[in-house]
Amino acid sequence: MSNINELTITEAARALRVHKFSVRELWDATAAIAIAKNKDIFAYLELFDANDVDIASAQKRIDSEGDAAPLLCGIPLAVKDNILIKGKIASAASKMLENYRASYTATVIEKLQDAGALFLGRTNMDEFAMGSSTENSAFGTTRNPYDKERVPGGSSGGSAAAVSANMAIAALGSDTGGSIRQPASFCGLVGLKPTYGAVSRYGLIALGSSLDQIGSLTKTVAGSQILFNTISGRDVRDATTIPKELYPFKKVPNKLRIGVPRALLEKGVDADVLAHFNEKLTALDAAGHHIIDINLPTSAYALAVYYVIMPAEASTNLSRLDGMRYGLAKCGETLLDDYLKTRSQGFGPEVRRRILLGTFVLSSGYIDAYYRKAHAARAVLANEYLAAFKQTDVIAVPTSPSSAFRRGERNDPISMYLEDLFTAPANITGMPALSVPMGMVDRDGTKLPVGMHFTAPYQAENVLFAAGMAIENIHV
Question: What is the pLDDT of residue 475?
Fold first, then answer.
């Protein structure tokens, strides 16, 4: 079978079980494409050598267990560079951690290892997950496989580009304000941000601890569901995680009630992106689903809330990287010089900008004016969403206001921050969200993908998957 690296998780798993090819052949084919394409796309910061023991173990497990073997057994995955694998470098695409080797393994990696998954390498990202284009990496810019002059989105742009270019079957990313879903939209993939606490953050290099979630980038909704079922669940090392026995199964109605906050779409959305969105809504309505106009007035302030809370938490989380304990260390004439040299040389401009902003909103003179008000608004927004879910099953918006933009085009911070307009509310509220491809738009003669975004109530990932599959099953 040729081009086996282009298969989805379910297709690859099925083919392995009927012996169309071996685990070794799947690994070799995917790794070969990753090596060949990485110079141009730069999806990976590092490609790992084949682990013969793990490959042989996965093959033996499939041969002995057959259909009972986990679906991810023998599947080559990419891993974002802020998720720890013991003994491997985890730099978060920063000079600060350029030579840091993880001393332990993230819970999600342990779960995937238990399922027999294989790891191709660590993917490029915006430094410490701060960005929406993967242009903030300290080691180079990742390119969009659809148009190498354009960005793949961010901060999980390397993971998205790897899957989109068939340099991995699927990938892990992290999502703080849209960092999985926006690159999924730009690269024509399915991107999942689970409920806060559904997936352990143990072993994830933190950006905003109340916002971060590990999720997946896959070629289909079914693949997203497989990965979620594998990595979710209680972890005693992360007190925020939810035990599976307390994770209620949300009944999925035959016909979904889909809420649309029309007022949020009136400004800033590209006309052709909005046209595709409306076409999909019309198709869903024709299929018997119910489209309901809703009002989420506080969502207009969600971006401002996010860019107060996230920098505040980031400045706190990154305070440990001071040149004293681990990571980069630069020596000066005084202790203050040590700090200044280490942090100014170790952190890139966007990270320094957000640390300064976060320190400002937490300062004694401004914490009441900004940080505490942002948390109050966060509670109001969550309550608005909960009220909306009394009449809807999911809420739909475009994933991003635009398609992938050119590298260097968004060179002012504010225009870049606006990329999180539709995705940030899911992180602020902690609710699960999914981006699925909804069509292609034309930019300078190149067809580029755009995504449709669904948000569901807490712990209702199965409703999200149903909504995503409804989109996959219609053709407009």
Answer: 64
pLDDT digits (tens, 9 = 90+) for 190-240: 999 999 999 999 999 999 999 999 999 999 999 999 999 999 999 999 999
pLDDT band at 326 (very low <50, low <70, confident <90, very high): confident
Q: Structure tokens of 66?
A: 């057959």
Residues with catalytic roles: 80, 155, 179
The answer, yes or no, to whether the previous bond of 133 is cis (omega within 30 of 0) is no
| Strands of the sheet with 257-260, listed across from one edge | 44-47, 118-123, 76-80, 170-175, 213-218, 190-193, 433-443, 446-455, 394-398, 257-260, 290-293
> Cα dist. 410→136, 142, 270, 413 in Å?
12, 15, 16, 8
Task: State the pLDDT at residue 2.
Answer: 67
Domain boundaries, the chain: 1-476
200 contacts 241 by C-beta, under 8 angstroms: yes
Q: How confident is the model at residue 251 (pLDDT cuts 50, 70, 90)?
A: confident
The domain defined by 1-476 folds into Amidase signature (AS) enzymes (3.90.1300)
Cross-strand bridge partners of residue 175: 213
pTM (global) more than 0.85: yes
The Cβ of residue 60 has, within 10 Å, a number of other Cβ atoms equal to: 14
User: 271: Cβ–Cβ under 8 A, 6 or more apart, which residues?
Assistant: none
